[in-house]
Design a protein that fits this description.
CATH architecture of the domain at 82-370 and 388-397: 3-Layer(aba) Sandwich
Strand content: 15-25%
Radius of gyration: 61 Å
CATH topology of the domain at 82-370 and 388-397: Kinesin
Distance between the termini: 176 Å
CATH class of the domain at 82-370 and 388-397: Alpha Beta
Number of helices: 16
Largest sheet: 10 strands, mixed
CATH superfamily of the domain at 82-370 and 388-397: Kinesin motor domain
């Protein structure tokens, strides 16, 4: 019977060292596809194993007036046109598979424009398998002899695994075999010749340091993201010829470890490379592809092939799987074949093809935006929200960038000149992605059981219970002793029978001793061999441990150096921040002062403009006033001169009349004498009339007389008469000038409309014409 199983020792706590906070940048590689025709113009040149150079084609340079220059981009490694799939796998995918076996997650995706060789890089071609079949081949070469029996591990709907005992697993296997499913792959079936050449990998590859005290199970799943919806390519939908049922989209969920997974996705347990690739090929036939102007088989969706490795330790006897779910380690490697970005003016897409291209470009743009925000947050210490949920593609791989794992990107480019603009955008995306850092995955915890349990169980030749049964059979193989009772003194048969039995027992004892010596020698040899193996493993582990210690010491010294440098930089940053604060304060003060001065200048400018307008109005008004005054004075002077000239003319006329008048004296008529007496008795004398001056609406002034004009008539005392006689001289010795009423009333007070000069005097007398 089996011994009682001891309780599993508690695993020691993982020490939180400096490695938990270490980060590694995303590894970005570039692969250049060979030209389909040698005479085609090339726009990409490989400068070195880490640098490529893009130069615009001639036609593009002419169209853009030669503004674009040659640009160089650096990568972790550049693979030229003659690179084989084996060389690419050894550098890019081999470390990811090794990490997968050691319980670490990994993500590998190909990125590029349509027709750049992404699917060829991932899947391969007949005779030259791609990265996916080589990853499967390396995985099964490493864990082939350590795989658990089918259905020992069973997936559930919570993105985790359950363990079944071998009896339950056997029952489930018998149940599945009793109802076979023709769609379920089997390792005993022949390989499909359609993809047989793809998985026929000639180069043997195997991981080192595989944990031999554990059992492994491999599960694969295959999904596609089409028009921002997730579909399961391995889901078996019952065929209905009357009403076909379309495939149902899946939803994303988050498990208890904050990892994203596709709810309800089919996971198939596989036991060989052929079986795994057969599952992949079955899903590949369901993937959506279409014929476009640029690619005959263009992928219209993003495909994700997940390889999930489940690892569980053996029990203390090294015979069965440890039935503790907490000891299960699940690691996953995601191989992503992204659909190519494309421009509709080149593909001439319409209808569904146009919608597919729009969704593809939108998801790739979201991926680029997430990379830019991650780089900004890590470079400048900001805390911007990364838009993972804008696309199902970025939301699915959120835990790789926010959590831990190793991320690798293969940028596939086509060097033909027609793809220059698209290749330029791809290079810029790769340049941004290289600056994003992902947390380095931590090593899995040790279960605490004694190492070498599997080999110890094999050395014993089987379970402990079988050995106990064999020993019991050996112990019971001695013949029974005969009866030793002597009833007669002459009995001569009892003692000989006893002697014979004892001799047989002695002979058997001697044979057993010899067998024991042989078995002990064999056991000692096996024990010595086991000790040598353990010693060699201990030496190997010590060597590795010393190497790790050296690496850790080097990293510690590097961390100390970086911490000192970080403190120095923090001090400099603090000084710069203080200086910047002072400069910003000075800048704000100067800006306020500048704004104040600008306001003052604006106020002065406004006052100046108002003053100029006011002065301009005053100058215009004064100019008009003096123009009118000058006109008035000139008119008054002209009138005065005209009056003087008229007076002189009158005098000359009178003088001429006197000279030319005959000397005969005529008696005056009585009527004239009477008129003259009347004229002498009255005299009209004008007097000014008082009035008020008012401003009018038009801007001028008006005069309103307040009294009535009165005329006074009185006889003149010494009036000149119209006669040829000369007037007598005045008593004061001045000459008397003859005037009449018309002359005296020719001057009046006048106020023009619109004038601001006030009332003025104006002469209205018309010059009298001379008599002919």
């Amino acid at each position: 019977m089996k011994p009682a199983r001891t309780k599993t020792p508690r695993k020691p706590p993982v020490k939180k060292g400096s490695q938990t906070s270490l980060k590694d940048p995303v590894g970005v590689y570039c692969r250049v596809r060979p030209l389909s025709l040698p005479e085609q113009e090339c726009c990409i040149e490989v400068i070195s194993n880490t640098t490529v150079q893009l130069h615009p084609p001639e036609g593009y340079r002419l169209n853009r007036n030669g503004d674009y220059k040659e640009t160089q981009y650096s990568f972790k490694q550049v693979f030229g046109t003659h690179t084989t799939q084996k060389e690419l796998f050894d550098v890019v995918a081999n470390p990811l598979v090794d990490d997968l076996i050691h319980g670490k997650n990994g993500l590998l995706f190909t990125y590029g424009v349509t027709g750049s060789g992404k699917t060829h890089t991932m899947t391969g071609s007949p005779g030259e398998g791609g990265l996916l079949p080589r990853c499967l081949d390396m995985l099964f070469n490493s864990i082939g002899s350590f795989q658990a029996k089918r259905y020992v591990f069973k997936s559930n709907d919570r993105n985790s695994m359950d363990i079944q005992c071998e009896v339950d697993a056997l029952l489930e296997r018998q149940k599945r075999e009793a109802t076979p499913n023709p769609k379920t792959p089997s390792s005993k079936r022949q390989v499909d010749p359609e993809f047989a050449d793809m998985i026929n990998v000639q180069e043997f590859c195997k991981a080192e340091e595989v944990d031999e005290d554990s059992v492994y199970g491999v599960f694969v799943s295959y999904i596609e993201i089409y028009n921002n919806y997730i579909y399961d390519l391995l889901e078996e939908v019952p065929f209905d010829p009357i009403k076909p049922k379309p495939p149902q989209s899946k939803l994303l969920r988050e498990d208890k470890n904050h990892n994203m997974y596709v709810a309800g996705c089919t996971e198939v347990e596989v036991k060989s490379t052929e079986e795994a690739f057969e599952v992949f090929w079955r899903g590949q036939k369901k993937r959506r592809i279409a014929n476009t102007h640029l690619n005959r088989e263009s992928s219209r969706s993003h495909s994700v092939f997940n390889i999930k490795l489940v690892q569980a330790p053996l029990d203390a006897d090294g015979d069965n799987v440890l039935q503790e779910k907490e000891q299960i380690t699940i690691s996953q490697l995601s191989l992503v074949d992204l659909a190519g970005s494309e421009r509709t003016n080149r593909t001439k897409a319409e209808g569904n093809r146009l919608r597919e291209a729009g969704n593809i470009n939108q998801s790739l743009m979201t991926l680029r935006t997430c990379m830019e925000v991650l780089r900004e947050n890590q470079t400048y210490g900001t805390n911007k929200m990364v838009p993972y949920r804008d696309s199902k593609l970025t939301h699915l791989f959120k835990n790789y960038f926010d959590g831990e794992g190793k991320v690798r990107l293969i940028v596939c480019v086509n060097p033909k000149a027609e793809d220059y603009e698209e290749s330029l955008q791809v290079m810029r995306f790769a340049e941004v992605t290289q600056e994003v850092e992902v947390a380095r995955p931590t090593d899995k915890a040790i279960c605490g059981l004694t190492p070498g349990r599997r080999y110890r169980n094999q050395a014993r030749g089987g379970p402990v219970g079988d050995e106990l049964l064999v020993s019991e059979v050996v112990l019971q193989s001695f013949p029974p002793l005969p009866s030793c009772e002597i009833l007669d003194i002459n009995d001569e048969q009892t003692l000989p029978r006893l002697v014979e039995a004892l001799e047989k027992r002695h002979h058997l004892r001697q044979m057993m001793i010899d067998e024991f010596h042989k078995q002990s020698i064999t056991f000692k040899a096996l024990l010595q061999e086991f000790d040598n193996a353990v010693l060699s493993k201990e030496n190997y582990i010590q060597g590795k441990l010393s190497e790790k210690q050296k690496v850790i010491s080097g990293q510690k010294s590097e961390i100390e150096r970086l911490e000192k440098k970080n403190k120095t930089l923090e001090y400099k940053v603090e000084i710069l921040e203080k200086t910047t604060t002072i400069y910003e304060e000075d800048k704000r003060n100067l800006q306020q002062e500048l704004e104040t001065q600008n306001q003052k200048l604006q106020q002065q400018f406004s006052d100046k403009r108002r003053l100029e307008a006011r002065l301009q109005g005053m100058v215009t008004e004064t100019t008009m006033k003096w123009e009118k005054e000058c006109e008035r004075r000139v008119a008054a002077k002209q009138l005065e001169m005209q009056n003087k000239l008229w007076v002189k003319d009158e005098k000359l006329k009178q003088l001429k009349a006197i000279v030319t008048e005959p000397k005969t004296e005529r008696p005056e008529r009585p009527s004239r004498e009477r008129d003259r007496e009347k004229a002498t008795q009255r005299s009209v004398s004008p007097s000014p009339v008082p009035g008020d001056v008012y401003k009018t609406r038009g801007g001028g002034q008006s005069v309103q007389f307040t009294e009535i004009e009165t005329l006074k008539q009185e006889s003149p005392t010494g009036r000149k008469r119209r006669s040829s006689t000369i007037a007598p001289a005045q008593p004061d010795g001045t000459e008397s000038e003859w005037t009449d009423v018309e002359t005296r009333c020719s001057v009046a007070v006048e106020m023009r409309a619109g004038s601001q000069l006030g009332p003025g005097y104006q002469h209205h007398a018309q010059p009298k014409r001379k008599k002919p």
